[in-house]
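[#protein-structures] MJ: dropping Polymer-forming cytoskeletal here for a structure pass
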Amino acid sequence: MMNDQNSFPAVPSPEQQPASDLPQALEVDVGRAMPPAMAEPIPMLQAQDSTMPEIDATDVASARSMLADGMHFVGNALLKGPFSVAGQIDGNLTQAEGIQVSVVVTETGRVKGDITAHKISVMGHTDGVLDSGQGEVSLHDSASVHGLVRYGRIQVNGADLNATLERVAPARKVT
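AK: finished. structure tokens for Polymer-forming cytoskeletal:
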């Protein structure tokens, strides 16, 4: 039987084909390529003790935090460990009572508010009070600092500095 539109033989539809000519189920030996029919049980996660290990509050390394580039935080933060600002903060950063922390404002970081920490390092932009008390402040060449800077020790490496500087003298011992 030839098809009128082209020279290829026409394939009869299954209704036109006799039942004896229909293909039967094809059996192919797959050998070892297929997994066994009875697979091993799927491993399941088991619930474990839900108590969290206690973290020593004096271990500041476990309290390291960062605000990533592209993020914007509005509000105040109480710091219990080192903090790095690569994004933007509109608010105050204050170290917790009895803990000495360091704050780094990276080149992409911007802080509009006060920073109170033992060590403050600025490579980005700040507008507010930088208060390290008797600690140290480092202002790098890419820094832009506006406001008040309180320090025990200060290092300025070509920063854009438009601020009042106030040295905090070490406490004198009364004898």
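MJ: nice. Residues 63-167 form one domain.
AK: one more thing. The chain has a mean pLDDT of 80.
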